[in-house]
Write a structure and sequence with these properties.
The complex is a heterodimer of chains A (484) and B (257). Chain A has 484 residues and is mainly alpha-helical. Chain A is built from 20 helices and two strands. The longest helix of chain A is centred in the N-terminal third of the chain and has 29 residues. In chain B, helix 5 packs antiparallel against helix 6, helix 5 runs antiparallel to helix 8 and helix 7 packs antiparallel against helix 8. Chain B folds into two domains: 36 residues; 176 residues, no CATH class. Helix content of chain B is 58%, strand content 2%. The chains are: A mainly alpha (484), B mainly alpha (257).
Chain lengths: 484, 257
């Protein structure tokens, strides 16, 4: 009984929320509450994963679906919550000193992002997206870049409005807000009739695209992230990206199935995002700008995979991307904060001074490119095979070409950051002495740990030792990875 | 140029929405015109009949009679309230959080060294003292709205807003007035925490988060509907103190250096 209550996923939402409200009048210990909530959520997610026995619908208020709101715990959301809470904990560990007065907002964001992943109700998804978005507007104003935050606020509010409009239209048609009730009713309908859903689907996709950073709706991201500190940057490119893209995937690949003109239009948006963002990343000189465009490109890729119903590869690509981006953006933000610059040219040879950070950064970048022996390879090969199996030739070609572009700029960054001198010159280490990084040991240790995980998950499927995992969750991951 | 592109885009979007809604084909998945929708197939029909938890869909719902029906589902005479604070209470907890985080943002942006902003006009004697008379009536009306939210139109959000409007009147009528922001913060935090605690109690006692674990009584009685009126009072206090806090924030300006 007690275990049932403790392993109820709603606690992942309720506990941070309760702590946020408590922090209002326990202002002195708000950071303690934040840390406690992060730790409790990691423990809770671990407990849920250990006790996981297949898809479970968690009813709220005691009303059965579709009447009450329900949370959905399945393979998809389980991976989401485990990854999200661990990432959130890591972000706090790495960037704790930037929290300042924002502990309450972070608590609310933690609750909302868990809700975005877990909810099985369209309107409830809107509510949690709204909370998460408002928290994000506040974070992005942290660096006093008010103009960009305001831009984000306006675009984000418009997007939410369109998303809500889509939900209203769907309620008119289906008489329900429960995702699986709608899915059920849709599966009984004649597929030829589904063209009538074009308007609500376009509205919802556009609304989600704003938060998922798909171009042209995600234009806010450049101004906001260009100068972001490690906390805000890592939150947006990693924790937020994970939750929002999982929600997008739930809507466009689980509940609805895309076909016809609607899919062509969405594919154009997603593929266009991929191409445009990789090209932009290639032309940038600042580390954070490169990373933010790379992040946008990955959103496009993940959305593309969801559009073709390739849920498993999409989740793999997404997971690999958010974990890598967490390390990459934290390191970039740290350089900008402590060394005063994130211009790639000014940081020549910085990794020689901080080799641990360098190893973690390099492994994350290589996984992102999709080199063999790294997790990113497993993810990308799954994606390409999936697209080929679906009879698609052009999209794999686009993805491969973009992977080459991505490889080119990351290799350029890595060679610069590992070498002190220009090509053909004698290297000198004089300038390195001026580089000082606060807490480089923590960043180094975490990034190396992440690197080990990335390499392990990249090598394991090749060795095919998945049978050693006995717990259900692990076999599931094993199956996912073995799926290549 | 930018404006021209925007106008074209908006017109295209408008044309898309218009054609999709009004040039209906016969598809069953088409948006239904006003009056054509089949209401009996919607979840809201279950909310009206108060028989959501019934097992069989074919079961004929018993009529709900005001002042007679006992122990009905949710037990709230106001159907909107039964949806907002019971059937979909989790969304309402979310909406309360939306307001909470928005108020938090205002507080963070408008914090620091600030002094009271003065109105452009000098409040007259009549305004100042008229407000004192109206104030009590407004607060009582606000409290009435959220304590009777499960019976009559109104509820926590409207009641709380009316109380905040009373605070706004105080600011407008008196240039020297400064509310105790700290008291607002404490009320806000306590009310929010208690809402979540009520949800957790439901989880512990009934097995579901936000479960209505109190007896629901007779439909139409003041003491009915279980935790619904309690939650609505908490929402009323929270919304009232939150919006008052926002007003207090906006009524200040940066200290001139």
């Amino acid at each position: 009984m007690l275990m049932d209550i403790l392993s109820n996923p709603v606690l992942l939402i309720a506990v941070p929320l309760l702590f946020a409200f408590l922090a209002v009048f326990l202002k002195k210990i708000d950071k303690v509450l934040l840390g406690a909530a992060a730790v409790l959520n990691i423990a809770g997610a671990a407990l849920i994963a250990v006790l996981y026995e297949g898809t479970k619908i968690i009813e709220l208020g005691g009303f059965k679906p579709p009447f009450g709101i329900s949370l959905v715990l399945d393979d998809y959301s389980l991976i989401g919550i485990v990854l999200l809470n661990v990432i959130f904990g890591l972000i706090l560990l790495l960037s704790g000193k930037h929290v300042q007065k924002y502990a309450m907002v972070l608590l609310v964001a933690l609750a909302a992002l868990n809700g975005v992943i877990l909810t099985g109700d369209l309107f409830n998804l809107f509510v949690f997206l709204e909370i998460a978005a408002i928290a994000a507007y506040i974070f992005t104003a942290m660096d006093k870049g008010f103009k960009h935050s305001f831009n984000y606020l306006v675009v984000g509010t418009l997007g939410s409005g369109l998303f809500l409009f889509g939900i209203i239209l769907l309620y008119n048609v289906f008489g329900s807000l429960n995702m699986f009730d709608i899915q059920e009713k849709l599966s009984q309908a004649n597929p030829a009739d589904s063209g009538a859903l074009a308007l609500p689907l376009v509205m919802m996709f556009t609304g989600l695209s704003v938060e998922a950073k798909l171009m042209p709706f995600g234009g806010w991201v450049k101004g906001v992230l260009k100068k972001a500190n490690t906390l805000v940057g890592a939150l947006i490119v990693s924790a937020y990206a994970l939750a929002v893209l999982l929600a997008l995937g739930r809507v466009i690949s689980t509940v609805f199935f895309m076909s016809g003109a609607v899919r062509i239009a969405f594919t154009a948006v997603a593929a266009g995002t991929l191409v445009f963002a990789e090209a932009s990343a290639f032309s940038r000189k600042n580390l954070r700008e490169v990373l933010l465009f790379s992040s946008v490109a990955q959103s496009g890729l993940v959305a593309l995979l969801f559009l073709y119903g390739l849920t498993v590869p999409a989740v793999l690509v997404l997971a690999g991307n958010v974990v890598s981006k967490l390390v990459l953006f934290t390191v970039a933000g740290k350089f900008a904060h402590d060394l005063g610059t994130d211009d790639i040219g000014d940081l020549k040879g910085v990794f020689i001074k901080f080799p641990l950070v360098g190893v973690g950064f390099t492994a994350s970048a290589m996984s992102l490119i999709g080199l063999p022996l790294f997790f990113g390879f497993v993810a990308k090969i799954n994606a390409l095979v999936g697209l080929f199996d679906a009879g698609n030739v052009w999209l794999p070609i686009i993805i491969l070409v973009m992977a080459v572009v991505e490889g080119a700029y990351f290799v350029r960054i890595l060679t610069t950051l590992w070498n002190t001198g220009d090509e053909g010159e004698l290297s000198s280490k004089d300038k390195l002495k001026t580089f000082k990084l606060n807490g480089s040991a923590v960043v180094g240790a975490v990034s190396v740990a992440v690197a080990v995980v990335i390499v392990a998950l990249g090598v394991l499927p090749i060795l095919n030792i998945k049978q050693f995992f006995s717990v259900d969750f692990m076999t599931f991951i094993g199956q996912l990875l073995g799926g290549m | 140029m930018k404006q021209a592109v925007s106008i074209v885009l908006v017109l295209l979007l408008g044309a898309f929405i218009f054609t999709a809604l009004y040039f209906a084909d016969s598809s069953p998945l088409q948006f239904k015109p006003y009056g054509d929708a089949d209401l009996s197939g919607r979840v809201s029909q279950g909310y009206v009949d108060k028989n959501v938890t019934a097992d069989a869909a074919s079961e004929e719902p018993a009529a709900v009679v005001y002042g007679e029906t006992k122990n009905a589902e949710t037990g709230s005479a106001n159907i909107v309230t039964s949806v907002v604070v019971n059937y979909r209470s989790f969304d309402t907890l979310g909406e309360v959080t939306v307001l909470f985080v928005a108020a938090l943002g205002v507080g963070l942006l408008l914090s620091g060294k600030r002094r009271r902003q003065e109105a452009a006009f000098q409040p007259s004697f009549i305004l100042k003292h008229g407000v004192r008379i109206v104030l009590g009536i407004m607060v009582i009306f606000g409290v009435y709205l959220f304590t009777h939210g499960h019976l009559t139109p109104g509820g926590g959000f409207s009641g709380g807003s009316i109380i905040a409007a009373a605070v706004l009147l105080l600011y407008v009528s008196d240039n020297a007035f400064k509310a105790k922001v700290k008291a607002f913060k404490i009320a806000e935090g306590v009310a929010g925490s208690l809402y979540v605690v009520a949800g957790l109690l439901g989880l512990a006692l009934g097995g579901y988060f936000l479960y209505n674990f109190l007896p629901t009584g007779v439909v139409g009685d003041l003491l009915s509907a279980g935790i619904v009126p309690i939650v609505y009072i908490l929402i009323g206090l929270k919304v009232g103190s939150e919006i008052s806090g926002v007003i207090a924030g906006f009524a200040t300006e940066e200290e001139a250096l």
